[in-house]
Amino acid sequence: MTPNPVRRTRRGALAVLCLVLGACATAPEPAPVVVALTDASPQQMVASIREAAGDGEGELAVQPLRDGRIEDLRERAAREEAAGDYVAATATVDAALEIVPTDPALLQQRAELALLLGQFDDAERLSQRAYALGPQVGPACRRHWATLEQVRLLQGDGDGAAEARAQIGGCRVGVLDRF
């Protein structure tokens, strides 16, 4: 029995087509490797953020009115965080944010908890929102920028971290002279 030349041609064309399509396909790009520029633990990062805030002594510090409905939740979250129960503290702050979703201090507290839980994108997003809603001067302002600095270090973004670090100094405004 002689081979069918039409079948042989179809097989050959199919093989060539597979080779051409295979050559056109690209291998998936490997995910970029992010090298963190810090080896600080999340607890050390949060301590650094709070240290950068300082106490606000001798400078203008705007303190928005606090909503009394959430003060007990804020205190409970602080106790839970101090005990190392970051998940419970996060749930408590989230409950407070359901009552007052635009409280910049709560948003910043939640950003720091996100950092403690390794939720770096959330930490960045929450801190940016807190900054946008907050006074943009004083200790709260420094906490926002210090949070962004830490997140950028974790992302391997040295330039972004340096830019955030530079913004921290701009948050300090001296008290106004009274006449």
Give a topology summary.
Blueprint: H1 5-24, H2 42-53, H3 71-82, H4 86-99, H5 104-116, H6 120-133, H7 138-154, H8 158-169
Key descriptive features of the protein:
single chain; 179 residues; mainly alpha; Serine Threonine Protein Phosphatase 5, Tetratricopeptide repeat; 8 helices; elongated
How would you summarize this macromolecular structure in one to three sentences?
The chain has 8 helices and no strands.
Regarding CATH, which class?
A: Mainly Alpha
Give the low-confidence spans. none
- Helix tally equals 8
CATH structural architecture: Alpha Horseshoe
Structural class estimated from helices and strands: mainly alpha
Total tally of structural domains: 1
The name CATH uses for the topology is: Serine Threonine Protein Phosphatase 5, Tetratricopeptide repeat
Helical content (DSSP H or I, runs of 4+):
55-70%
Biggest sheet character: none
Rounded radius of gyration (Å): 27 Å
Mean pLDDT: 83
What share of the residues does DSSP label as strand, in percent?
under 5%
What letter string, H or E per element, gives the SSE order?
Answer: HHHHHHHH
For this structure, what is the CATH homologous superfamily?
A: Tetratricopeptide repeat domain
Amino- and carboxy-terminal Cα gap: 113 Å
Q: What is the molecular shape?
A: elongated
Total strand count, please?
Answer: 0
